[in-house]
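=== RUN LOG ===
request id: a7f3
mode: sequence -> structure
chains: 1
length: 294
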Amino acid sequence: MAEREAHVVAVLGAGTMGHGIAQVCAQAGFETRLADVDVPVAAAGRAKVEQTLARLVGKGKLSADAAAATLGRLLAVDADAACAGATIVVEAAPEKMELKVDLLSRAARHADARALFASNTSSLSITELGRRVGAPERTIGAHFFNPPPVMELLELVRGVGTSDETIDRALAFAAAIGKTPIVIRDFPGFATSRLGVCIGAEAIRMLEQGVGKVADIDRAMELGYRHPMGPLKLGDLVGLDVRLAILEHLHEELGEVFRPPALLRQMVRAGRLGKKTGHGFYRWTDAGAEPSDG
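=== RESULT ===
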């Protein structure tokens, strides 16, 4: 068995996905540095990891020693400090190409000479990102799923310039953090986003047309196709603004089948973004999720 690579992981972005990815890496035994626009925001992300670990300890799913060791490996720092000597840089920023290029270009000035540059993008071109960062052979898509500590899949996306060595190292890293990887060629929407948003968008159109209510449309996929969560509830969990951004990108790249439903645009304009705002297709409370349409 090949010796496990001793990675130092920088995670750029301390939001829902970023702090979850950082937790996964720290729990797997890697030194992990979490950064965001400033240190207080990164520290808030680390605090959320601490809360999650405390809940696991309380439920008997994690020992107190393991939780303490994980937190000991997880630092909240500024972006330059996070990337200093890092062997893997994972950006978990919003779906904006210019932002991702800027983050990874800055990271390249501080990271290890062999560092992998991984983007958690769910739809943007890894080929373009790698070219603009100036390290196409070491740039890869690493699409985690929400919540990262729970979801098994890691979608690895190979750009035109991504090297075989990078693929091999990324596969080994996926195994080390307990994920099951798939390798997908760089194409708009990759595999998971392209399939997922098709189902999600059609569910929203069905709601627009009065075909069924929120709970019934979701239950159709949960019970009829054994999906663990219906497409409308999943959209709420991912974030309806994120869903809209992906659909807009795929509509531009692939055509009319991905045109965003008008209802989705209206909800995003109204600030009804799903679980993160407490209201989307469901109302999200401490008691659980209730369909907004009654």
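=== NOTES ===
The mean pLDDT is 95.
Strands lie at 8-12, 31-35, 74-76, 88-91, 116-119, 139-143, 153-158, 180-185, 282-285, 288-291.
=== END ===
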